Amino acid sequence: MARRASGSKAWTRMVQQQTRWVLRQAVSEGKKALKRAKLAPTTTAARKSPAAAAASTGGSWGLGLSTGPAGLRRYRLFKPTGLSKAKLCPLIVMLHGCGQSANDFAASTRMNRLAALYGFMVLYPEQDRLANAQACWNWFDTRNGRAKLEAASIVAALDHARILHPIDPTRVAIAGMSAGASMAALVGLHFPNRFAAVVMHSGVEPTSASSSATALSAMRGRYRLPLSPPGKVAEALPALLVIQGSADHVVLKANGMRAAQVWAARTHAEPKAARVVGRGKRYPFTTMDWFGPKRRLQVTLSEVNGLGHAWSGGAASQAYSDPKGPDASRMVWAFAQREFARLV
């Protein structure tokens, strides 16, 4: 009994140490982002309420409440003006990271501007603080089934939005940042027929962890679970885009390659030569593709050189957002568009 108690104390200390390390790194990244925000000029749009900002962008910013396996789920929906009720339009589901809200994530990514420009809707499910004190999605909590319940509740929010708005069920993509990225991938794994594309930005491959302790280890590039796909290989999985910063000290860059490799293994996809892309003064990034049967592109990994734990190309006024990177929101939309076109 003494040995068991001693082992329990050691495990508790280890988790506490890992948690403190992650929090220090996250706070450091947040301070850097806030410093950029203070140095950036404050625009009129930044001072507006989310609803007013949406109206000036060319759309409406609505609040919804859906019921799913995990209970009630709040969500925000951006709907561009001028959409035809007789014509179904595409939808991007956006999952925020820890410490963020739907409003924060919309402001950081500026995805609503693209939606107004190209005529698609954006759904922002929101994590409840009662489910996680830091507003993180519990993608890692598989032992008691919470992870799958939360994934199902996100799909329930999507279904609720579809009842109320003209959304094309064949043209839906899901993207997320940090914990939202891991949850986006988990949703894609459990509900592959509901999404044409999945995008992970600065996240951990969801089957790399099964608890908070293993999740913290995975964020640091230490994996207690083997690099292997589940027994069932699903060739029908949606295409995956992984965006990862090389200077990310919260979710280390090794996670980007791991996420791409695991997804590629599930779809029998093989890698091709990497290429470097540079666009003006923004961070350059290295891209690698994996192609599956019938030459279908299954996975793309874009590693952004110099990017920390922040949305690439995001608004300078927001935390966890770096305007110096390539525009991740445009990358998300371009990737989703390509998959939408392939399904026509």
Any overview of this molecule?
The chain has about 350 residues and is of the alpha/beta class. It is built from ten helices and 13 strands. Strands 1, 2, 3, 4, 5, 6, 7, 8, 9, 10 and 11 form an eleven-stranded mixed sheet that branches. The protein has a two-stranded parallel sheet with strand order 12-13. The longest helix is centred in the first third of the chain and has 38 residues. It starts with a helix and ends with a helix.
Task: Summarize the model shown.
The chain has 344 residues and is an alpha/beta fold. The chain has helices spanning 2-39, 44-47, 50-57, 102-109, 111-118, 146-164, 179-190, 212-219, 254-266, 328-342, and strands at residues 59-68, 71-80, 89-95, 121-125, 167-177, 197-201, 239-245, 270-271, 275-277, 285-291, 297-304, 311-312, 321-322.
SSE blueprint and pairings:
Layout: H1 2-39, H2 44-47, H3 50-57, E1 59-68, E2 71-80, E3 89-95, H4 102-109, H5 111-118, E4 121-125, H6 146-164, E5 167-177, H7 179-190, E6 197-201, H8 212-219, E7 239-245, H9 254-266, E8 270-271, E9 275-277, E10 285-291, E11 297-304, E12 311-312, E13 321-322, H10 328-342
Helix pairs in contact: 1-8, 6-7
Q: Could you say which structural class the secondary elements and strand pairing correspond to? A: alpha/beta
| Helix-strand sequence | HHHEEEHHEHEHEHEHEEEEEEH
Q: Enumerate how many helices there are, as a single number.
A: 10
Mean pLDDT: 86
Residues in β-strands, percent: 15-25%
Question: What overall form do the CA principal axes indicate?
Answer: globular
Summarize the amount of helix as a percent range.
25-40%
Specify Rg, calculated over alpha carbons. Answer: 19 Å
The largest sheet, given as strand count, sense and whether it forms a barrel, is: 11 strands, mixed
Low-confidence stretches: 1-8, 36-46
Give the CA-CA distance, first to last residue.
63 Å
Tally of DSSP β-strands: 13
